[in-house]
Amino acid sequence: MENVLTALQMVGSPQVLLVMMFSAAFGLFVGAVPGLTATMATALLVPITFFLPPVPAVAAMVTATAMAIFAGDIPGALVRIPGTPASAAYTDESYAMTRNGQAQTALGIGLVFSAIGGLFGTAVLIVGAPALAEVALNFSSFEYFWLVLLGLTCAVFITSDRPLKGIITLLLGLLLGSVGLENPAAHPRFTFDSTDLLAGLSLIPAMIGLFAVSEILRFAVRPQELAQVKAQVGSVFKGMGTLMRRYKTQTLRGSVLGTAIGALPGAGADIAAWMSFALSRKLSREPEKFGTGHPEGLVEAGAANNSALAGAWIPALVFGIPGDSITAIVIGVLYMKNMNPGPTIFIDSPQNIYAVFIVFILANLLMIPFGWLCIKAASRLLRVPRTILMPVILMFCIVGAFAINNSQFDVLLLIGFGLLGWFLEEHGFPVAPAILGMLLGTMLEEHFIRSMIKAEGDWMAFVQRPIAAGLAIFTIGVWVWSAWYGWHVRRRSTTL
Amino acid sequence: MRVSDTLIGSVLLLLSLAVLWHIQSFPDFPGQQHGPALFPGVVAGALALASLELIRTGLRSRAPLLQLAGTNLYSLVPFATTVAGLFFYYLLSDRLGFIVCALIVLSALMWSFGVRRSLVLPVAFVSTMIIHTGFFKFLKVPLPWGLLQPVAW
Hints:
The structure holds two protein chains of two kinds.
Chain A: H1 2-11, H2 14-32, H3 38-49, H4 54-71, H5 73-79, H6 85-88, H7 91-99, H8 103-137, H9 141-158, H10 163-177, H11 195-198, H12 203-221, H13 223-226, H14 240-246, H15 248-263, H16 269-283, H17 295-319, H18 325-336, H19 345-348, H20 350-382, H21 386-405, H22 408-426, H23 432-455, H24 466-495
Helix pairs in contact in A: 1-20, 2-4, 2-20, 3-4, 3-18, 4-17, 4-18, 4-20, 5-7, 5-8, 5-20, 7-8, 8-15, 8-17, 8-20, 9-10, 9-16, 9-23, 9-24, 10-23, 12-21, 12-22, 12-23, 15-16, 15-17, 16-17, 17-18, 21-22
Chain B: E1 2-3, H1 5-22, H2 38-61, E2 66-67, H3 73-96, H4 98-113, H5 117-138
Antiparallel strand pairs in B: 1-2
Helix pairs in contact in B: 1-2, 3-4, 4-5
């Protein structure tokens, strides 16, 4: 108990609180600018953490990332350009709400349910860290293979009204993701002797191109259409209570899924958001409303991506194995500050761990006032005419794409993907599955090849382990069910 | 402008066949049957099947291969300016430097989008300086100086 009190004292110090304020502002800015991601925010904070004692250092990182993941929703809702990959899963939905004059509600959902999801994930972290880490450790390449395949299947679900075109963009994304050296055989694929292509097609410039640049190109062709967004009504928090009551199952489901996926090493907020949104649509009682500006999916996925952040700390703290790219960086910082992650951390310096837990809770609570301020500021930004806003955003995108790897080639990627994204969307091809394909393609292949090597070519090995078998049955079941459902619907519409 | 599904499907089919042909040259994984050609092969195969289906639905809808009617020539200007601006930046930012390039691109874009003439240059200037300060000073991104190298800060 005295450890908890010591921890409270450590967190309550003015230095920690000041650091959290600045990190919150920093995280909100980075998250809201398309092209700057939460991982980047963490990486950029590392040099600053050199000069901070352990607790403020960790507090800075936790706060910045929590804010960044939420802030990615803001440009997504207001101008249909997601600030972070995690928000890309439901950008269309939140933008549809903005078109209906409900931007404040959409952002309020992002804010409130992110905080709820984050708090839930933190609670799980505090209570169940060791137990969950046990399960996570049992995941081998076989389980991961099925999990990633399930994630890809979800990409098709999100576009269930145009499945063929969604599948095509997904396949394109998978193909584009296989460019480069990053495959188990380390054979340079589709590089055509270009050094730039050896590392593959960088995901962030591709994402900015597909979403942001294509949106700007769309605006360039039809500037007057976008100006017809209805006047915005309502306050950010209005209606949240009703939504909380109506969608409590969805909130819980999103938080649980998010925490679970975050706890798996290598799967983070991005995948959690996608899977959660797809699941929400599939299990919803009003699936036809998705795409018209329906809050249900936003509630679930918003909770999922913030709870994934907390979940990612479970293997990180208990085993020193990063749950996502953000915790990978944080583990480095922990080592630097002599807070070596692992089971001993609970014994050697428990007050540090309790301080981390308290910081998590504080960060998620801080999100509400800070996020509200950010939404207000961003909405004001929306009143700037699009004709001025769009070129400035384009400039941000160009520099953002360049800044990832300090590479001019990434700017070329930005242009290429921008044109591709514009063309695809003009012809009814959803762009979102392409990003997921690029994200998950390498993972899928790696786990498949690794499993085949381990199994020495024996296909049955994919379903021999219990968790793998369970995931396999679930994934294949989902395919069979949606194929049957699609055929059933088509048959019904032709006989009517 | 609309390209028909049939045409898109045909292009995708050609792409997948090209991929399938190209991966024949990939070496095998020593000791394993499944090498670097497997994954792109499966994906390209699936893409080929999907493109065939797309061609089929395209043919069934009987839409013209390429529809140009209804294209407003006026709307082409902002679009072309945007694309040109992007390429301009990519090709010349090292030579001219970020600040000069950004000023030119931002001004050109705002001009073609129809922003009030008196606002174009001031907004372009302010935005360029904000972006430059933010990324160069705070985030330490090495934006090229180009022509402004002698006065670099």
